[in-house]
Amino acid sequence: MIDDETLARAVRQGILEPGQRDALIALARGGAGSGPLPEDESPSLSVDDQMRLVGGGNDIFVTVGIVLLFSGALFALRAVFPPDSLAIAPVLALASWIVAEIVTRQKRMRLSSTLLALAFSGAVLSMLVTFIARSFELPQTLNAFSLLALRAQAWPIGLTLGGGMIAAAALYFLRFKVPVLAAVAAIAATGLAFLGAVVLYHDRLVSGATAAPAPEQLAEVLSNALAVPLVCGLAIFAVAVMLDLRDRERQTVWSDCAFWLHVVSAPLLVHPLFILATGQEVLSGRIEPGVTAGVLLALMMVMFVLVALAIDRRSLLAPTLAYFGSVGIYYLVNGAANSTGIPPFALILIVVGAVVILFGAGWQRIRRLIIRPILPTSVLNRLPPIKA
């Protein structure tokens, strides 16, 4: 019997259409001549589920071998070379590339390929950090005052680190097409954006264009700085949606890249919007539980749920639920928990767990019941298809 992986490869190579693949699976599960399966028994997986992170038992087996191989290699290299040697990181980066030529290029193992790409990125990051430490005169102790002395070297250091990571991720992606590298590049680009904002604010302070904040104004300054992650999150989210719209059936590597971009964009969007909506104090993290904060928090959760359902991305919804559950719900239910004697953490687990199970078990039905009636047909035709 042909397995699901072979059928998926046939779709990617254009041998089968997605509908033909589903029909073959339905025929195999229902038996010859039994006709189409009922809706509850038919393969109604969301297209988002086609972004599988594990290719099978052999993939897990090889992943364990990669962990053992590179762990042993790291200890061996540290025993041979000094800890600050420039040779360790390049050797690990080269080793991950060589192993990827077999595991990724030939075998296309998903989990192993993701781990190798992250190992390569980590080795490049270590190499760049070591190079920066040797090439630039960094202060022995890093604090707010010592960092101000690095203004002249800020952009060379930032471009070396962030630009080097983006270039390495692009080079590795061109060779192996591993989707997780989209997240690596997005994080590096976000770091460069943060650096640009800090340098701009520093220059305005030095030139006198902006007055130095008083101690009681630090919270306001930090709140204004939330515009940086918010803008970066919106930009990354926009790129992810663009990739999704180009591949509605989620059959190419670009939709897998969009998956990781949604994972990166979610916390960048959720944290600033949460603080702006609830009025959380940036320095202390306190939130005054009240009707306004509760209503705004509920509206934000509804907004993110609707967006995730529309674009068919649970990867956008999962970090959102985790953040609201760990931060927002804690503060807003803390008062109720104290009056009932139930620990706040227990209420958080109950609420978030129930929501996750609900959406996980009936994702496509929820999409069909909510998204189809509220969006026009012209918009639905551009979004990932809703399973009947």
Descriptive key words:
388 residues; mainly alpha; 0% strand; globular
- Count of helical stretches: 16
Strand content: under 5%
* Largest β-sheet summary: none
Topology order in helix (H) and strand (E) letters: HHHHHHHHHHHHHHHH
Q: Mean pLDDT, as a whole number? A: 79
Tell me the overall shape. Answer: globular
* CA-CA gap between termini: 27 Å
Oligomer state of the chains in this structure? single chain
Quantity of strands, as a count:
0
What does this structure look like?
- The chain is an all-alpha fold and 388 residues long.
- The protein has a domain at 56-212.
- It is 73% helix and 0% strand.
- Helix 11 packs parallel to helix 13 (314-340).
- The protein is globular.
- Keywords: Membrane, Transmembrane, Transmembrane helix.
- This is DUF2157 domain-containing protein.
- The chain crosses the membrane at residues 60-81, 87-103, 115-133, 153-174, 181-201, 221-245, 257-278, 290-309, 316-333, 345-363.
Secondary structure blueprint with pairings:
Blueprint: H1 4-12, H2 18-30, H3 57-80, H4 88-103, H5 110-135, H6 144-148, H7 151-176, H8 181-207, H9 218-225, H10 227-246, H11 253-278, H12 291-311, H13 314-340, H14 344-361, H15 363-374, H16 377-380
Helix pairs in contact: 3-4, 3-5, 4-5, 5-7, 7-8, 8-10, 8-11, 10-11, 11-12, 11-13, 12-13, 13-14
